[in-house]
Design a protein that fits this description.
5 helices, alpha+beta, 2 domains, two-stranded antiparallel ribbon, 57% helix
Length: 136
């Protein structure tokens, strides 16, 4: 009978970062792998032939992932509202009357500030939160 066995890939700190099945004389962790579905997430080590979770490392990784996810979400919100700035710039660039340019410019800025007041305030809040999360 041929048994599939797991070959573990371990990083320089001793944490499991991957595994694959193989045939041969590798250790059989199949039963243990079922108990550790997140073994390759970077917080599980092989200690004396047993898989062991490092709970402090797990908390650190999950916190970083949550932070990265929040930053990604905030950046997406910023990107999705970039049209406000682009449209304002397009309207300004379309101004061609040099006599009324300043008045027209101020009018465009005022209109967009009023129309997108909440979105612009949110953008500022989102940017500040990203900077806070990144430690900038």
């Amino acid at each position: 009978m041929i048994i599939n066995r797991y070959k573990l890939e371990i990083n320089e700190d001793g944490y499991i970062i991957g595994f694959y099945t193989t045939l041969g004389d590798e250790f059989d962790y199949e039963g243990q792998m079922a108990n550790f579905p997140f073994a390759t997430r970077g917080w599980t080590k092989l200690v004396n032939g047993q898989l062991v979770e490092d709970l402090a490392k797990k908390a650190e990784i999950l916190e970083k992932e949550a932070t990265d996810l929040e930053i990604s979400d905030l950046e997406e919100k910023l990107n999705s509202t970039d049209y406000i700035i682009a449209r304002t710039f397009e309207d300004i660039m379309a101004l061609d009357n040099s006599v009324t340019f300043i008045v027209d410019f101020i009018k465009i800025i005022r209109q967009f500030r009023e129309k997108y007041k909440d979105a612009l305030a949110n953008r500022k809040t989102w940017r500040e939160r990203i900077e806070e999360l990144r430690g900038d």
